Amino acid sequence: MSATPWLLEVRHLRKSFPIRRGWNRKLVGRVSAVDDVSFTIREGETLGLVGESGCGKTTTARCILRAITPTSGEILFRSANGRVVDLAPLSRAELRPLRPQIQMIFQDPFGSLNPRMTIFDNVGEPLLVNGLSDRRARLDKVADLLELTGLRPEHMHRFPHAFSGGQRQRIGIARALATEPRLVVADEPVSALDVSVQAQVLNLLLELRTRLHLTLLFVAHDLAVVKHISDRVAVMYVGQLVELATAEEIFRHPRHPYTAALLRAVPVPDPHAPSADVALAGEVANPANPPAGCYFHPRCPYVTDLCRTEPPPLREIDAGRLVRCHRAEELALSGVVVDSRGHDGRTT
Amino acid sequence: MTTPVLQVKDLRVHFALDEGLVRAVDGVSFDVNPGQVVGIVGESGCGKSVTMKAILQIVEPPGRIVGGQILFQKDSAPAVDLTRLSPKGPELRAIRGAEIALIPQEPMAAFSPVHSVGDQIIEALRLHERQWRPSGPRLSRTEARSMTVDLFRSVGISMPDERVDAYSWQLSGGLRQRAMIAMALSCRPRLLIADEPTTAIDVTTQAQILNLLRDLQRRHGTAIVFITHDLGVIAQMARYVVVMYLGRVMEQGSVEQIFHAPKHPYTRALLRSIPSVNVAPRTLLPTIAGSIPHPLGRPRGCPFHPRCPDAIPGLCSERVPALRPVGPTQLASCFLYHRDEAVEP
User: Fold this and answer.
1) In whole angstroms, how far apart are CA B245 and each of B51, B248, B291, B292?
2) In the predicted model, is pLDDT for residue A269 greater than 90?
3) pLDDT band at A344; cut points 50, 70, 90
4) Single pTM value for the model
5) Residue B320 CB: number of other CB atoms within 10 A?
6) What SS3 class is residue B47?
């Protein structure tokens, strides 16, 4: 797998937002929404980005899409012609030719489609914008896309209100795929959907991944969903990457106490499973005023004096395995493992 | 045999819209025994929230309870049918908030932003004083305040003396939900309705809140109706589970029966379709075909039949199966088990 070249490399990405107060909008501080985040995504790979609200996962995704301009850092993207470009400093005009190669799937299937445009117009717009002006050709292409995402092409002249949430999400996926992107950023693509529909959309993404060799950055808060779809998983906490490993590894042997706590906090749909006993005390730190040392230390059960003063660096403890913890090697943390009975038990 | 605190019998809540009649709740029955946690689980549009609103008599027009009974057992007195009481009348106002309390989904919207959270709880305590303390002198403000501080302490709010004077927008999501729980428990209700109490909260905070609820439930023995769409939360919280789909109960049973021996095809399909941390990764999940029908386009017959893998042609599409026993304490409404038990049209 390491032979596959990377498609996206994010290096020391930072994004901070100003905090302004008072009548003259005086600058009183800055929130570091994304604080020195680095990772790579290989071609054809799905990277899951998880964390709780406010951890900076969406801001990271928006920086990569260049919906917002990062404060510093590099976003290296290998474009279709093999050239590596840094997206971070590019202007709107410079970004334009690259936009078709990076597309997005949105969270809210009700807010992300224009209600006044038919499905054909919604899905066909990226094609039109990118120069496919022949309506006949566009009709064919949209029909193909709808078929690909499991919709009936003959419905393309209907308006979004005629479709259910799951179908709308398929339309959103069809639109994202219209320009044959090399990278798709999906921000919580199934969290607004009902359980029975969520599985269908996840399956669709899995199928498309294999069929189109899609590279996916999958942002979500639901660990079960992320594990199901991702090859590798990155965990964020208060703007920082705290752990990155393959999906199997992270669920079996988390190395960061926060990851372990996050896994234990997920209620398991099995009454026999041990209940999610107090995983973590306290609350997520305020990113505008993070604690000294390790950002996680006030909640960490394994805290030492070092953690209170010295911020831990993100270290590679095994090949491709990154952890931001002083004690990663010595801690024996419990993961969620599969046992032979089919439902999971937790190792101690 | 204990008398249930709450008995919902064939409840029907319909919404007469210009576009047509929406049968949001269409014949729902279940019991809640004292000290029992009953989970109501279902996807959007299944009627779980409308059921909750019907119990509290806060269904907004054009919604109307058109049939059924909601029997609530107060102490030793005969059960009262809540549907017979006027929604704004004194009897119901004495019950709502005092005997039956609600933990809403979004505590930010539930608390008033212009009164401190403490004041709102003090108000509830004093308003419902005769319900939770039938005799004794009138409760003074200072007394009520110190009770509120104790309540805050019991729900794990740190620095309760200061937090009592805080406004809801000054508290974090987790603290706000704890304050809401304190308010709901303030009048020592016999029944607590928790409507998706952790849906708007992050997982690590959710674990704390669920733990708190479990702990309080054990200590006070309050009966809880726990409404959620999250099967994981239901498995961890409820002893008895009611599975709803399009306004009807598909199946109900003990939590073990529902999760380990589900009878209704919908329950089975729903359980299979959740990606869990133990399913082999990057494999296709078994899905339920189709999507939830539009409320105005309810299918004839069993509401689940167009998506059901086991639908019996000519039967399921015509007649509505009745909720009948399929085992001890387990009921299902499905013709696979009771071919002749249909609901009379």
Assistant:
1) 12, 5, 12, 9
2) no
3) very low
4) 0.83
5) 19
6) coil
Decide the pairing of beta strands A336-338 and A344-346.
Answer: antiparallel
Beta bridge partners of B327: B330
Q: Which residue of chain A has the CA closest to B279?
A: A228
List A13's β-bridge partners, or say none. Answer: A37
B342's tokens: 């249909």
Q: In what order do the strands lie in the sheet with B330-332?
A: B100-103, B191-195, B223-228, B37-42, B240-245, B248-254, B330-332, B324-327
Contact yes or no for B43 and A195 at CB 8 A? yes
Q: Where are the domains of chain A?
A: 255-348
**For residue A177, which of A205, A196, A157 has the smallest C-alpha distance?**
A205
Residue of B205, B269, B292 with shortest CB distance to A194: B292
Terminal Cα distance for chain B, rounded: 33
pLDDT at A198 (0 to 100): 87
Superfamily of domain covering B6-34+57-242: P-loop containing nucleotide triphosphate hydrolases (3.40.50.300)
Tens digit of each residue's pLDDT (9 = 90 or more) over A191-202? 888 888 888 899
Q: Is A135 helix (H, G, I), strand (E, B) or coil?
A: helix
Most distant CA atoms of chain B, gap in Å: 68
Query: Lowest-confidence range among A4-8, A211-215, B74-78, B304-308?
Result: B74-78
pLDDT in tens, A102-120: 999 998 888 889 999 999 9
* Residue A18 predicted with pLDDT over 50: yes
Reply yes or no: is the peptide bond before residue B62 cis, omega within 30 of 0: yes
- Torsion sign, CA atoms B88, B123, B199, B249: negative
Contact list, B253 vs chain A (CB under 8 Å) = none
Put simply, the answer to whether A283 touches B174 (Cβ < 8 Å) is yes
Query: Touching check for A154 and chain B: CB below 8 Å?
Result: no
Q: How far is CA A160 from CA A114, A155, A187, A191, B43, in A?
A: 7, 10, 20, 19, 21
Structure-token match 């008072």, residue found: A22
Question: Could you read off the pLDDT of B22-71 as tens digits, one per residue?
Answer: 889 998 999 999 889 999 998 888 888 899 999 999 888 888 899 899 99
| Dihedral of alpha carbons B116, B118, B124, B126, sign | negative
Nearest to B291 among A167, A229, A248 (CB): A167
Q: Is the CB of residue B204 less than 8 Å away from at least one CB of chain A?
A: yes
Q: What pLDDT, on the 0 to 100 scale, is given for residue A279?
A: 63
**CB-based contact A111:A148 (threshold 8 Å):** no
- Give residue-wise pLDDT tens across range A154-186: 889 999 988 888 889 999 999 999 999 999 999
CA distance B234 to A190: 20
- Please tell me the least confidently modeled range out of A233-237, A331-335, B221-225: A331-335
Query: Under a CB-based contact definition with an 8 Å cutoff, are residues A292 and A280 in contact?
Result: no
Q: Is A76 on the interface with B (CB under 8 A)?
A: no
Whether the CB-CB separation of B206 and B144 falls below 8 Å is answered with no
In which band, very low, low, confident or very high, does the pLDDT at B94 lie, cut at 50, 70 and 90? confident
Of A38, A34, A37, the closest CA to residue A6 belongs to A38
Q: If contacts are CB pairs under 8 Å, which of residues 228-257 in chain B contact chain A?
A: 229-236, 255-256
> Residue ranges of the domains in chain B?
6-34+57-242
* Residues facing B174 on adjacent strands: none
Token pair in block for residue A237: 């906490």
Contact of B11 with B70, CB cutoff 8 Å: yes
Q: Are strands A232-237 and A46-50 parallel, antiparallel or unpaired?
A: parallel
Mean pLDDT check: name the lowest of A21-35, B136-150, B277-291.
B277-291
**Measured between CB atoms, does A288 come within 8 Å of chain B?**
no
- The answer to whether the Cβ–Cβ distance between A206 and B284 falls below 8 Å is yes
Q: In one letter, which amino acid is B135?
A: S
